[in-house]
Structure formats: structure tokens, C-alpha cells
């Protein structure tokens, strides 16, 4: 028999709350072994519901969930080799770090010596050896997070579910823990399914991302695919900043099209298979793929530079286009660049043609 490559296979899963409210609507996903897989979407899109179905805290109304090729949709949580790290860590406050980490193994009735060795190994893994005797209440948020991770990893689950585990940490610690989580996943080889509404978190950590909205999966891909080739306007807007331009296809070839913009200019844009091949279309241009100039050279768009916002590493230039839309250009700061732009100036906006992409309607 060929080796099973997928860890979790979710097939056409629907979850109804009450008679009519569909929290999940025909969700199908194939999550691979050893993968750092992220469920990304705005509040209420169904991320936690999907995680709870995988964990066994809820059962699907319709559809199947398989783990390593076996149907688990009706198994209770404790019979699934799956663990969860919750947003609030859910540690036992009266126990020490070591006791918290060993708790699950004790419940499984493992021998004392084995538990002690495994707790040591987990403390090393999350770099908490020095704090093993501290009670939960004597640990910082970041340290509690590490204990929660160690506790969830201790029984060597096949899949670890993480429900917004970093949201309670401050910005710096969150950045640190993002790298830490990725390291833990690589070192343990366990499949991680991570839930977040933070697109930057998803882009920096994931092997692949599923973008959800309204209980449906809109797109699945690696971070580059999702950012560079968003399928539709929602994905494009949710992941990073985006400029949207209206236009009409004049002529299309296999993978690109000549589009007439509202400004009257013709541009070339990438044309994915999923996008319309004719008629009115929307084009996305990322702010970092465009440039602003004030030297009067011909460019597809023109307008007034409304504001210049300095961000340290880069500067955002907000342009009011001649036909009314706003367009944002992000320009990396460098001591060598010409600084001649001033708010109020009439400017041209140009972009790399390879950066403009037609979206699915
Ligand atoms: P958040 O990021 O805010 O946690 P989410 O994407 O995880 O959101 P879910 O918690 O999965 O969203 O909720 C999806 C939808 O289902 C929401 O509209 C929510 O109100 C609803 N919902 C979740 N659990 C229940 C329940 N037990 N009964 C009724 N409705 C529910």
C-alpha cells in the first residue's frame, strides 16, 4: 500500500448551529504530514469551529474527517492522537511547570520514570529547564505559553492544533514565539494546524495557508502563492495591502491580457486560469510594485500626491488618481533615493507589468 501522505483529510464538511446557521459550508482540505498549516480569516469565518471539529469537541453536520487515512469524525477527543494549545493556555495554576507538562502522560498511565524523562526532554525543547519548579502563577505570559506547548507536545500527538496561541503576547514576544513555534514544528516533525486572523503571522510561519471567509475556503497555497497570486478580491485585500483598478480586457492570450484602464491607458496584466478572459475586470497591484514620479514622463495613471507617510523602513505615498480612486505606493527608504516628492504635486504612477494581476470576479 502506498504511504499515506496526508495527515488530515477534510472532505465536504458542513457545520450547522441551530437549524439554519452554517458556520462551515462544504469545507474540503488536505493537510499534509509534517506541515505547518494555517487557517487564516477574519473573526467569525469558522476557523475555531473547524479546529474544534478536528479535535473532536464538535461533530460535523455533514462530511468526513480522516486522520492518517482513518475516519475520526465520530471519535471522542480523548481517542484522537491530537492535542490543542488554547489561546488562554489553560494551565493548572496550582501546579508547577513540570507537573503541568507531565499531567497528560499521567492521565495516560505512563510509568513514572518515562514521564520524568519526557518532561525533561520537553523542558529542554521549549528552553524552560531553569523554571521547572515555578508555579503557573509565577511565570510570565511567554513562559506560560512555552509550558502549554510542552504539555501539548509531551504525549507526541500526530497533530497539534493551535488556536491563536500568540494573541495574548506583546508584539516583541509574539515575533520571538513565531520563530520558536516554527522551530518546534521542524524539530518535532508533528503536523501543526495553526489558527490566526493575523496575516503577517500566517505569512511568516506557514508552509501553506487556507484563507477562509463566511465558512468557506477561498484559497489554499503557500505564502508566496497567496500573496503574489491572490485568487479574488477578498484574499487580495485580507493579505497585505492592495490597490484595485477597474478595466476592460481588450485582448487576451494564454496567461496575460491587454486591459484598458478607466484612465484610458492600456496595460498588460497577468491572467490566471480562474480569471475572466473578457469583459470588465478588476486588477490588483501591490503597493511595493508601483512607483511614483513627478518628472512628467508618460505613465498609465496620474493624479495628485495627497500624503507622504514615513514608516522607518519604507514610506507610503497616497495618490488620488485623476478618475477619483486612491492608490498607495510603498517605497523602500534609502539614503540614496531622490527625495524630491512633495504633497500636492501632480504625479504619474507606474508599475511593473508583471506585478499587475487580473482577479477572479
Ligand atoms: P474568531 O477569530 O473571532 O475566534 P472564528 O473564525 O474562529 O472567529 P468561529 O468561532 O468558528 O469563528 O465561529 C464561526 C461562526 O459560528 C460565528 O458566527 C459564531 O458566532 C458561530 N458559532 C460558533 N460556535 C457556535 C455555537 N456553539 N453556537 C452557535 N453559533 C456558534
**Terminal Cα span:** 42 Å
Q: According to CATH, what is the class of the largest domain?
A: Alpha Beta
Taking all Cα atoms into account, the compactness measure Rg is: 25 Å
Beta content: 35-45%
Shape: globular
Order of helices and strands: EEEHEEEHHHEHEHEEHHEEEEEEEEEE
Total domain count: 2
Read across the widest sheet, the strand sequence of neighbours is 6-7-8-3-9-10
Question: Could you state the CATH homologous superfamily of the largest domain?
Answer: P-loop containing nucleotide triphosphate hydrolases
Ions and ligands: adenosine-5'-triphosphate
Low-confidence parts: none
Backbone structural class: alpha+beta
Oligomer status: single chain
Give the integer mean of the pLDDT values: 91
Task: Describe this structure in a few short sentences.
By secondary structure, the chain is of the alpha+beta class. The protein is 23% helix and 36% strand. It has a six-stranded mixed β-sheet, with helices on both faces.
Secondary-structure map:
Elements: E1 6-17, E2 21-32, E3 36-40, H1 47-55, E4 62-67, E5 70-71, E6 82-85, H2 97-107, H3 112-125, H4 141-153, E7 159-163, H5 171-188, E8 191-196, H6 199-205, E9 208-213, E10 216-221, H7 223-228, H8 233-238, E11 243-252, E12 256-261, E13 266-270, E14 279-285, E15 290-293, E16 301-310, E17 314-321, E18 326-332, E19 346-351, E20 357-358
Parallel strand pairs: 3-8, 3-9, 6-7, 7-8
Antiparallel strand pairs: 1-2, 1-4, 4-5, 9-10, 11-12, 11-14, 12-13, 14-20, 15-19, 16-17, 16-19, 17-18
Helix pairs in contact: 2-3, 2-4, 3-4
Adenosine-5'-triphosphate binds at residues 17, 23, 41, 43-49, 197.
Amino acid at each position: 500500500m502506498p504511504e499515506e501522505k496526508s495527515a488530515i483529510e477534510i472532505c465536504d464538511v458542513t457545520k450547522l448551529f441551530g437549524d439554519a446557521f452554517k458556520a462551515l459550508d462544504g469545507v474540503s482540505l488536505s493537510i499534509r504530514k509534517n506541515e505547518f498549516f494555517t487557517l487564516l480569516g477574519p473573526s467569525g469565518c469558522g476557523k475555531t469551529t473547524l479546529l474544534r471539529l478536528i479535535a473532536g469537541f464538535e461533530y460535523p453536520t455533514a462530511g468526513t474527517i480522516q486522520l492518517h487515512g482513518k475516519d475520526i469524525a465520530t471519535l471522542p477527543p480523548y481517542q484522537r492522537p491530537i492535542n490543542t494549545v488554547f489561546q488562554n493556555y489553560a494551565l493548572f495554576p496550582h501546579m508547577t511547570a513540570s507537573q503541568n507538562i507531565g499531567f497528560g502522560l499521567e492521565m495516560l498511565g505512563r510509568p513514572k520514570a518515562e514521564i520524568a524523562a519526557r518532561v525533561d526532554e520537553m523542558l529542554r525543547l521549549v528552553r524552560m529547564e531553569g523554571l521547572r519548579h515555578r508555579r503557573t502563577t509565577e511565570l510570565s505570559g511567554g513562559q506560560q505559553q512555552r509550558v502549554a506547548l510542552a504539555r501539548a507536545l509531551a504525549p507526541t500527538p500526530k497533530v497539534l492544533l493551535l488556536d491563536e496561541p500568540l494573541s495574548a503576547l506583546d508584539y516583541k514576544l509574539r515575533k520571538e514565539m513565531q520563530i520558536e513555534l516554527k522551530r518546534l514544528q521542524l524539530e518535532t516533525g508533528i503536523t501543526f494546524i495553526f489558527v490566526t486572523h493575523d496575516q503577517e503571522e500566517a505569512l511568516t510561519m506557514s508552509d501553506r495557508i487556507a484563507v477562509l471567509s463566511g465558512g468557506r475556503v477561498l484559497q489554499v497555497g503557500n505564502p508566496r502563492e497567496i500573496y503574489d497570486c491572490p485568487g479574488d478580491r477578498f484574499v487580495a485585500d485580507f493579505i497585505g495591502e492592495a490597490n484595485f483598478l477597474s478595466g476592460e480586457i481588450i485582448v487576451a492570450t494564454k496567461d496575460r491580457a491587454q486591459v484598458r484602464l478607466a484612465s484610458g491607458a492600456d496595460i498588460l496584466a497577468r491572467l490566471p486560469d480562474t480569471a475572466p478572459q473578457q469583459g470588465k475586470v478588476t486588477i490588483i497591484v501591490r503597493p511595493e510594485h508601483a512607483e511614483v514620479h513627478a518628472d512628467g514622463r508618460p505613465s498609465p495613471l496620474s493624479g495628485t500626491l495627497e500624503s507622504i507617510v514615513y514608516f522607518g523602513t519604507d514610506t507610503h505615498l497616497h495618490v488620488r488618481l485623476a478618475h477619483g480612486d486612491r492608490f498607495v505606493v510603498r517605497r523602500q527608504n534609502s539614503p540614496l533615493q531622490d527625495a524630491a516628492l512633495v504633497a500636492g504635486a501632480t504625479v504619474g504612477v507606474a508599475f511593473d507589468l508583471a506585478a499587475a494581476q487580473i482577479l477572479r470576479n
